[in-house]
Amino acid sequence: MSLVLVPATPTVRLLASVVNYFPFFALNLRIFFYDGDLTGWDMALFTFVFIFTIVQLTLYCVQGQTVGKIIFKLNIYSYDGQKAKLGKLLLRLIVGPLLSFIPPYMFINYGAILMKNKQCLHDKLTHTFVGVWREEAELAAAIPVDPATVRRRWALVLDIVFPGFIALALWILFYFLQFVYIVLFAISMGLLAFLYEPYLKIILDNMFNFGIVLTVVFYLITAYLIIRRRTSIGRILLKVR
To answer: What is the average pLDDT across 52-72?
Structure first.
């Protein structure tokens, strides 16, 4: 039996990430609904997340794995096929979270995994990839990817990153309106009063809420298209059947 090292599929990496981040999601959810009373369950959750974090960091630094990666038999490798060294692992540990919290890079970062080489943006920047060992015979029997499949993947990428474009557009609009405010202030106090009260002020004060509404509307439309039309916004824009 001959084994070959190949990049892990997006689905497997997503499942591994769910395992890795679920405890933190549970903790954030508890903090969000915290009512001021600290219970025994809260202490147990905090203790578990703390121990889980220590275990995750230890596994990551020692063998380039996490609990999720161990469950799905994944590891982090350099381009030469060897397990990534500690230096690259630490760099990856820094770059990944940074990209994950900066829109729209967070959508581009994870959307890139749907490309041919199955690498996130932080994988590319650190010259690493998440790999799994598979049987050579299994790979030889795999069906080649046709152009229609590629277009479907691009449509999925578009569906993922579209909310990022919404956030970016609103960010640009916010600072553009701030610029308009300064210009109007310099030109005419009377004109400023006319535009600033209440229209411009309302827009600026509610920009964040407006972004949330647009994103929710986007996902509602996407859900409707998937359930009723068996398609999505990305598929419509790229004309994928």
So the answer is: 92
